């Protein structure tokens, strides 16, 4: 893959649930090191777009390429074996952080972080533990390594989930409303870890309602409505002079 080719490239993406069109001809490119924030009203297709990028949702048609792997989907065509291999490879280069954390409740914070390294990457246990501890330290949770999720706050759980994603050394991280399940006072600790990752050059696509984060951290802000991308701008343009009346109305509600 050349230096200049996008990390994520989506072309003509279409998806319906039953008869409901949810993504209508979505086109998107995200380059290495970019932080792209996706905003938009509830039901506009943000989560479906994000989940389509690593095939947690199967689009109806369109092309998705992530980190040099991807497939073209034609309506009604089943995935080939080659397509499935591409999806597996693509998933190995990405991480997804969910609103609901999705930690294993019967594993400690450290075990949650090391699980993939040991079972998928087949890393030596002692090496995985050392890496897991370093990652927990990076997200400010060194002292919580042996705690179970039930003993952690929401913000701590989400930071463990981020450390778990980082353990697999992803080239791109997808965040699906990572702070929406958190009380306001716990959001900043998660957002500050995300800022730190952005500052370190991680490529990130973030569905969120955190407008301050979008303004301060995003390289680009995408606004979705009715299953389509209706704005794709630098934050300065999006938040200041470029917004349509519809977007201004949305922003005023937050
Ligand atoms: P957003 O993230 O912008 O709130 P979503 O992508 O979650 O939007 O949802 C877009 C539309 O698709 C909504 O109308 C939602 O109800 C519908 N939808 C999402 N997931 C499913 C599903 N698994 N089955 C049926 N409809 C769904």
UniProtKB/TrEMBL annotation:
It is a peripheral membrane protein. It holds the Pfam family ABC_tran. It comes from the Bacteria. One of its GO terms (cellular component) is plasma membrane. One of its GO terms (molecular function) is ABC-type amino acid transporter activity. The keyword Coiled coil does not apply. Its main location: membrane. Gene3D superfamilies: P-loop containing nucleotide triphosphate hydrolases (3.40.50.300). It is found in: Cell inner membrane. SMART domains: AAA. Residues 8-251 form the ABC transporter domain. InterPro entries: AAA+_ATPase, ABC_ATPase_HisP-typ, ABC_transporter-like_ATP-bd, ABC_transporter-like_CS, MetN_ABC_transporter-like, P-loop_NTPase. Keywords: ATP-binding, Cell membrane, Membrane, Nucleotide-binding, Transport. Belongs to the ABC transporter superfamily. Drug exporter-2 (TC 3.A.1.117) family. This is Ectoine/hydroxyectoine ABC transporter ATP-binding protein EhuA. It comes from Izhakiella australiensis. The lineage of its organism: Bacteria, Pseudomonadati, Pseudomonadota, Gammaproteobacteria, Enterobacterales.
